[in-house]
Amino acid sequence: MIVVTGAAGFIGSCLISRLNAANFRDIVAVDDFSHPDKAPNLEGKAIKERVHRDAFHEWLAKHHEATEFIFHIGARTDTTEFDRAIFDRLNVAYSQELWQACCRYQIPLVYASSAATYGLGELGYRDDESLIPQLSPLNPYGDSKNEFDIWALNQPEKPFFWAGLKFFNVYGPNEYHKGRMASVIFHAFRQIKATGKMKLFRSHHPDYRDGEQMRDFIYVKDVVDVCYFLMHHRKNSGIYNLGTGQARTFLDLTRATFHAMNVQEQIEFVDTPADIRDKYQYFTEATMDKLRSIGYDRPFHSLEAGVTDYVQQYLQPGAYY
């Protein structure tokens, strides 16, 4: 059996689709299944068993011999949440208990870290593990992910294979439920469909013109391909960036969305909200040499190709992956 935590969420549900496509059908889906807006993410997928996240550690103690691999994707990911106790419980303590179980039962583990750990990028965006203790995330979510990364690196006992993946700006199908935390592509599609135009944040940084703030946007299909590769690779444990390695502007993204929708471009600029202005990242770009060095050689979708696939195959028909 292969376990996926956060199974009903965005990346977790897409990962199950990727595993199903490769004929892996004994999937154990772990999540809090009480949110009805996530239910469509799992419809039609081959899942052997659903386990509530609060019961999972007990379940694993009973079924570890049949568990081949664990993808720990589940986490509290709201960057606007400032109750650190929530992150301590769901992102740190829960992950620590799972790590220790993987050591005890000798189960390989891939877990979700985040590019939010890099903060404003004062030290760059290199997945150099020696730099991780020096990083300064901008919010409790980023702090929780960095805290677990540091804890994992310092453990004397580790799973025989493990990898932490620093996801950059992931977009794609099955994020319908995420509200404000959904990707800019998702919000652009909704705005353009409703109003025929898109509003972007104005730049408040002298080095960037309006709309030219840059992010490393990665299509979720590329993310789950990397997860699938690591499930088979099972060596070169460590923490890896997962972006495309090429930063693109929000103007690029918005224009690609207009083009995919076959709508004439109309873009307006609004002030960045004051509550996030001092925590706003103007540039992120993953260095991808480390992942490439262990043999991952598949190309990533260009922003234009990813946005076109997302808009035309999923957003316009309201489809799920």
Automatic annotation (TrEMBL):
GO biological process, one term: ADP-L-glycero-beta-D-manno-heptose biosynthetic process
EC number annotated for this UniProt entry: 5.1.3.20
InterPro entries, per database record: Epimerase_deHydtase, Heptose_epim, NAD(P)-bd_dom_sf
Residues annotated as the enzyme's active site: Y141 (proton acceptor), K178 (proton acceptor)
Highest taxon of source: Bacteria
Co-factor binding details: Binds 1 NADP(+) per subunit.
Pfam families xref list: Epimerase
Cofactors required: NADP(+)
Binding locations of NADP(+): F10, I11, D31, D32, K38, R53, I73, G74, A75, R76, T77, K145, V170, K178
SUPFAM superfamilies: NAD(P)-binding Rossmann-fold domains
Key words of the record: Carbohydrate metabolism, Isomerase, NADP
GO molecular function: ADP-glyceromanno-heptose 6-epimerase activity; NADP binding
Coiled coil: none
Domain (NAD-dependent epimerase/dehydratase) ranges: 2-243
Annotated substrate binding sites: N169, R180, H187, F201, R202, S203, H204, R215, Y280
Pathway membership: Nucleotide-sugar biosynthesis; ADP-L-glycero-beta-D-manno-heptose biosynthesis; ADP-L-glycero-beta-D-manno-heptose from D-glycero-beta-D-manno-heptose 7-phosphate: step 4/4
Catalytic reaction equation(s): ADP-D-glycero-beta-D-manno-heptose = ADP-L-glycero-beta-D-manno-heptose
Functional description taken from the UniProt entry: Catalyzes the interconversion between ADP-D-glycero-beta-D-manno-heptose and ADP-L-glycero-beta-D-manno-heptose via an epimerization at carbon 6 of the heptose.
Notes on the domains: Contains a large N-terminal NADP-binding domain, and a smaller C-terminal substrate-binding domain.
PANTHER family according to UniProt: ADP-L-GLYCERO-D-MANNO-HEPTOSE-6-EPIMERASE, NUCLEOSIDE-DIPHOSPHATE-SUGAR EPIMERASE
Assembly with partners or alone: Homopentamer.
Family: Belongs to the NAD(P)-dependent epimerase/dehydratase family. HldD subfamily.
The name this protein goes by in its record: ADP-L-glycero-D-manno-heptose-6-epimerase
Natural source organism: Catalinimonas alkaloidigena
Upper classification of the organism: Bacteria, Pseudomonadati, Bacteroidota, Cytophagia, Cytophagales
